[in-house]
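Q: How do we represent a protein-ligand complex in a form that can be generated token by token?
A: Start from the inputs.
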Amino acid sequence: RLLHTAIERRSAFARLSEQDLAFFQSILGNSGVITDADALVPFNQDWQKKYEGKSRVALRPRSTEQVSEVLRYCSSRRLAVVPQGGNTGLVGGSVPVFDEVVLSTAAMNKVLEFDEVSGTLVAQSGCVLAALDEHVGARGFMMPLDLGAKGSCHIGGNVSTNAGGLRLVRYGSLHGSVLGLEVVLPEPLLPPPPSRGGGGGSSSGSSNGATASAAATAGSTADGRVLDLLRTLRKDNTGYDLKQLFIGAEGTLGVVTAVAIQCAPRPASVQLALLACPTFAAACTTLRAARRMLGEVLSAVEFLDSACSDLATAYLDGVRNPLLPQDAAAAVAGLGEAGDTGGGAAVVARGRGGGEEGLEGGGVGDDRQFYMVVETHGSDADHDTQKMERFLEHVMAEGCVTDGTLAASEAQAKTIWRLREGIAEALARRGAVYKYDVSLPTAVMYDLVEVLRQRLGAAGFGPEGGVQVRREGGVQVRREGGVQVRREGGVQVRREEGVQVVGYGHIGDGNLHLNISAPRYDDDLLHQIEPYVYEFVRQHNGSISAEHGIGLMKAGALPYSKGPVAIELMRRIKETVDPYGILNPYKVLPQR
Ligand code: FAD
Ligand code: 2HG
Ligand code: ZN
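Then emit the structure tokens for the protein with (2R)-2-hydroxypentanedioic acid bound:
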């Protein structure tokens, strides 16, 4: 169990030299080689600012051929490399641990092909997900995945993490929607073809349903390390499905340079409801009803606990929960601004009744604990509306939903999605966050949040902690029940500042996002959480990574979800493809 073991830099890796930089400049030009210390900060630091490397160079190739040249050189020099897309990953996989060369796909952002009959898209791996969605949206299609990070994450990063997101329940995993990949391997598997520079490119020729590879498009020659699996075929049973190996490989086996993906028709009718449920069991009953009654049009079923709603409304400008009265949301935002110097969330009074646009029959009481976002994608508004109305009537009659609102416009739908999608950002603003992204049997999913809340409270962390009064910076501070009260500038300021355990996620996929928000990172707190969380997950036959991947954060914990034979096979695949281990070292596989 290497959960807390410090990692040492592998001595087999070379250190970057001036000659290395000169070589990179010779193939990428000055603009493709970043060495300025300030400019390197965002490449070295992850989205959460939790993991930080010390790379001295970030490379921005524009073509498959350039990626291939870079890997050929790095392999011969034994320079370690970390592939980086939009750098929105949440497990420390996308940034260097030490001084690895950062290979960013940001300049590989061209759409290569879109087939308007079949809806197949071929794009370079550095295309931003939202930009691709806009591109195919203008042609009547949508990307088969959507996530809060869509404005920054790259399709290559999505594939490499096997990102799940908000609509997996309807459009499935990338293991199904990715039709083809082009990947540059760290070592050649074949000798280079005899003539270089002839523009031939890929090893597999274009045939019916196949597409031009990005290498060929860029006029490159494959040098025996470009694995061209860039087909757009829906069906292709020709031996092992090698592309699946790279979906979710987190940059440890190759650099994905292009992706062929099946897009879905953009729905003509979209409905979105935000519902309040008194208990998690009621949320599960609502989920079952949604599956049964919304059937083929159901496109998302998400949940958040009320603590998540409070955080999002308190920390993000303009975010509100339409089921809370306006004044409550405004009061939260106001308190946050007035009392906050970057510390804790405002305390929200819940259950004050009267959500705007509340459904008839929906009473708001003190029992509001969970919110659900239920969305449908269909082709006939009348049919879909009727289905949604019947579903809402049913769940309210059953008492598993006590209040709800149906978005009446795109703007209202955005408000609801912003509440859900903003949670990660709100947590990041509150302070330190320990994130766990687990798959569990849906019915017991929230038990993990509750037992951890109790466990941390009993250990003196969190709102359940005792009463403390002490002087800090000459000011008397009183802490009780996780609320800090102090006087600042003659004004009494109350701030929820303790450890908060919150849960939300993709309930339709059995995927819980357990987040422990704390004023600061603290090893004692971490030891209360790990390995407890991983043990809980193992006991329930769950997965320690539902969608975010393993990265650096969970490499030591992999044995909680994978047996020794599976891990050994993973190691052998890694050793075959990357014998010098230069690609994204220290990530995914546990140290021996
Ligand atoms: P990066 O973060 O740059 O990289 C992620 C991993 O992939 C790293 O290991 C990296 O080395 C590797 N990699 C990147 N590009 C390549 C490539 N071209 N070839 C080989 N390896 C590569 N995830 C979900 O699954 N569902 C969600 O709903 C979701 N929501 C999110 C919301 C927010 C606000 C944020 C910040 C993150 C969210 N994530 C979610 C995390 C998710 O993993 C990423 O957002 C996304 O899939 C990563 O893409 P990226 O381009 O940012 O990759
Ligand atoms: C989401 O679903 C992301 O919003 C982020 O996967 C999850 O913050 C998290 O734990
Ligand atoms: Zn998620």
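The chain is about 30% helix and 20% strand. The chain has a mean pLDDT of 88.
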